[in-house]
Amino acid sequence: MSDLGRKDFSTKAKEEITPDSSKSTLQKTKESITDTADRAARGGQPDSSKSTGQSVFDKSQRTSDRQAHGGTGESILDKAKNAVGIHK
Asked: What's the pLDDT tens digit per position in 33-43?
């Protein structure tokens, strides 16, 4: 079970298992939009305020994103703070 306002784990797993070649353009677009919203929610909430399952899942997704796209390991909130000059 995922936290409120987050993409459900089983939905995410089904999307990952289903090959893109068998998805319609509408399905791919929907997944892209919901993945982006889920990433934003993931970055805007500290792990300490998440359920254990959600925290573990988010950490694995951040690791996957960093490996796939490169990155600093900072959350969206940290990046925003650095952008406006409010450092930790």
From this structure: 988 888 888 88
Q: Are 71 and 65 in contact (CB under 8 A)?
A: yes
The string of pLDDT tens digits covering residues 10-30 is 888 888 899 999 999 999 999
pLDDT bracket for residue 70 (50, 70, 90):
low
Task: Calculate the CA 67 to chain-centre distance.
Answer: 14
Q: What is the pTM of this model?
A: 0.60
Instruction: Calculate the CA 76 to chain-centre distance.
Output: 11
Q: Which residue has the tokens 């990155």?
A: 71
The secondary structure of the chain in percent helix, strand, coil, rounded to multiples of 5, reads 70, 0, 30
Q: In the structure encoding, which two tokens stand for residue 17, read together?
A: 């298992």
Q: List Cβ<8 Å contacts ≥24 apart for 38-42.
A: 38/6, 38/7, 38/12, 39/65, 39/76, 40/76, 41/5, 41/6, 42/6
